[in-house]
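Hi U.,

Before I forget, here's the chain from the pilot set. I'm dumping it here mostly so it's searchable later in email.
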Amino acid sequence: MCALTLPDFFEDILRPPIDCSYCQGLDAIEKVYNLSVENFEKHYAYTGRPVVVVDDSNAKRSANFGFQLFKNLSDSKLLTPCQFFPYKTEFKSLEEALNMDNERAMMTSGYEPWYIGWSNCERKSINRLKEHITLPSFLPKLSDRKQTLWIFMGTPGHGAPMHIDKVAFPSWQTQISGYKKWTLRTPAECFFKCKRMFEVFMEPGSTILSFVDEWKVQMMHY
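Structure:
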């Protein structure tokens, strides 16, 4: 472990330069349909380029997968977050967020908008949540080895600010319900070699693989 942790701003400045070959010639984020495991590994898994997989028949959820389920699990101490991101809300914890007024939770007009995210790394929490969802069918089984399940949700017009997710593995997110606009920006050293900004809209059932160690990402709900 580091004795001193640098602010994100300095980490971005002092990081090693990125090889820009992964984004050269990329004009738009590709969308593919019903991708197989074999084609994913052959054509997309190791390129570093973002891709959206649409109409994955196995990326489904049960009817009650949503705010009330999360609240019930939290109240029963069966949902224990390992990390919680309040973003621009006033919430200090996931438990506090899930106890917001029902009208606000249901996005009633006139109530303060919100957007939150949290990670689940305890086995009991993950198993409970996975009873209600299925993983994208094109992902190899080894892609689930890290055993951390993230959930992000919020009201229209709000989302995460532009940021870099410093993770050791490629990142993927499946849109369970609603719509989300992703904005991806190439690193500064690639501005004159690659297109600087990409946008893509996610619909329910689609999955984006963003390989976020190499991209700055912003997500907005619609």
